[in-house]
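2024-03-11 09:14:02 INFO worker-7 job=invfold-0412 stage=load source=structure_tokens
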């Protein structure tokens, strides 16, 4: 962590020094103007990095909000009238309205655990030992 911070800081200062040095060469700056230019270049780099991070964050948030939740078409029985309803279910949905009696039903899921099984094919083809 400390090594990464030191590495990023040295890169930042190197780029700032290079930018300021190129201005110092072409505009005949003295050493005090060079250090002022280096400070301005450092602040500009940090500001640009902050702005790019905000734009990236905003675009990721927008993408996540625009993406539709994946749905599964499923048939579910109404708890009131027992008639089957076909709904497009997504994982954030916890209720649906019956098409027949118009009552609102809650949706509960049940998960099962099962032992892992060996595929039947693997049991039918025994390993043939090599003949030497
Ligand atoms: Zn119903």
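2024-03-11 09:14:09 INFO worker-7 stage=emit residues=132
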């Amino acid at each position: 962590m400390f090594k990464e911070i030191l590495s990023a800081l040295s890169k930042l200062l190197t780029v700032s020094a290079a930018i300021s040095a190129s201005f110092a060469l072409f505009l005949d700056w003295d050493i005090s103007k060079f250090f002022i230019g280096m400070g301005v270049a450092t602040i500009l780099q940090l500001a640009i990095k902050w702005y790019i991070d905000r734009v990236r964050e905003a675009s990721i948030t927008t993408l996540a909000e625009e993406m539709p939740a994946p749905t599964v078409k499923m048939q579910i029985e109404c708890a009131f009238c027992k008639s089957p309803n076909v709904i497009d279910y997504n994982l954030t949905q916890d209720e649906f309205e019956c098409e027949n009696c118009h009552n609102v039903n809650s949706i509960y899921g049940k998960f099962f655990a099962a032992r892992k099984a060996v595929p039947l094919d693997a049991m039918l083809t025994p390993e043939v030992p090599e003949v030497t």
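2024-03-11 09:14:09 INFO worker-7 stage=report msg="The chain has a mean pLDDT of 88."
2024-03-11 09:14:10 INFO worker-7 job finished
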